[in-house]
Amino acid sequence: MRTAIISDIHSNLGALEAVLEDIDRRGVDRIVCLGDIIGYGPNPVQCVDLVQQRCEWALLGNHDFGVIYEPTNFNTVAEDAAFWTRRELERQKAEDPAGFIRRWDFLNRLKTRWQEGEFLCVHGSPRKPINEYLFPADTQSDPHKITKVFDYIERACLCGHTHWPGVFTDDGEFYKPDELKDHTYTVRPDEKAIINPGSVGQPRDGDPRASYAIMETGDGAAPTTVTFHRVPYDVQHTVDLIHAIPELHPMLGDRLLDGK
Ligand code: ZN
Predict the structure, then answer these.
(1) pLDDT for residue 192
(2) Residue partners of 142: CB distance under 8 A and separation at least 6
(3) Residue 200: its H or E element
(4) For the chain, which terminus, N or C, has the lower number of CB atoms within 10 Å?
(5) Contact 203, 211 (CB under 8 A)
(6) How close is the Cα of 190 to the center of ligand 1, in Å?
(7) pLDDT per position as a tens digit, 23-62
């Protein structure tokens, strides 16, 4: 089965549409989403609709939580964006009442964790599914944290949240997609792995192109592989949309140009 894994869309419709086109061109059996559908970007309504239409399931990210419930531990830029996003969704109450209810209901039902075969799926980390970051740099600066986190999974994990694509292994390594042959990681039967597909709508690894992954789970003896993909899109258009919304800090647009 071929599963496209998308995460951290952050209301960036241009990036999401480009990724969905790329997924459709390659052909998959289904699409799943690891959370942060909304927050930061200019098109929350359309992004929620597309994820609801196209994904088999989706998880709750900290920014989805921040919009639906309350922004916790956000800086003022992220907090302002969360409040604007909520107002934007609530504005639909008058314009499109049925759509408003459908969207709000969908957001309220997002899961915090989901077991998918041998993969535990979360937004943040296996021990703190909504808010904990697993950064590539943690393998050097805080290896104990990575070891502890691996205690929470039996086999493998899919997570988003950091916007850094790649693979953690239980021997303390982190592999960037560029370090992998054909950008593909094969999960060995004798190891544990944590895999992050990167961010569709706000990459932070220095590459502004949208990031996602396709997981191939074989039947029987075939090992699971994950292939990382990057998709160019009209970044400047999203930047312009953000800059036109006074409640969204201009920096939220500017940083998309550098993928930071
Ligand atoms: Zn995010």
Answers:
(1) 95
(2) none
(3) none
(4) N
(5) yes
(6) 31
(7) 999 999 999 999 999 999 999 999 999 999 999 999 999 9
Distance CA 11, CA 242 (A): 10
Domains of the chain: 2-257 (3.60.21.10)
Rounded (to 5) percent helix, strand, coil in the chain: 40, 20, 40
Protein residues near ligand 1, an ion, with CB under 5 A? 8, 36
Distance 161 CA to ligand 1 centre (A): 5
Crossing angle (nearest 10°) for helices 235-243 and 250-258: 170
Show the DSSP H helices in the chain as ranges: 13-26, 44-54, 62-68, 76-95, 97-108, 138-141, 143-150, 235-243, 250-258
The pLDDT tens digits for 171-194 are: 999 999 999 999 999 998 889 999
Q: CA-to-CA distance for 127 and 141, rounded, in angstroms?
A: 19
**How close is the Cα of 221 to the center of ligand 1, in Å?**
34
Assign 127 to helix, strand or coil: coil
Place of tokens 């569709």: 200
Token readout for 136 is 């590539």
- Residues in contact with 144: Cβ distance below 8 Å, sequence separation at least 6, in sequence order: none
